[in-house]
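Reopening: structure tokens for the zinc ion complex, inputs below.
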Amino acid sequence: MNIDSITNGIVIDHITAGRGMLLYDLLGLNNKDCSVALIMRVNSRKCGKKDIIKIDSNISVDFDVIGYVDPNATVNIIRDGKLIEKRNIELPEKLTNVIKCKNPRCITSVEQELDNIFKLTDKENMVYRCIYCETKAKIGK
Ligand code: ZN
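Re-run output (same inputs, fresh job):
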């Protein structure tokens, strides 16, 4: 499957090599009823190796999740076989129910119906903290 074979869908490009799988998981793509291709360690002239995710369906994806996993990724939106939008991703200020707090004493561990909310506290180092207990979250953990 290449970009030309997608009629309606999304291509997430320039994902840092090795993070494609994590993004695939966090986006819940294994539970979606559509064809998805996860292509890992592709040679890229721009950034060495990269991962690519191609979704051959018109589903909506959570841009905050993409931004959290890799703010340098680009999202190409394909409609009727044409690239209609190329979107740059930014590091989100807030994450709601993307990751879970690892602190067993955190209120979100006790009150299961509470949203897991993390705020970006250090943009340079991409550090997120739980808004309830301030436990740090790191990419991939
Ligand atoms: Zn917490």
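The mean pLDDT is 91. Residues 17 and 123 are 21 Å apart (CA to CA). Marking as resolved unless the reporter disagrees.
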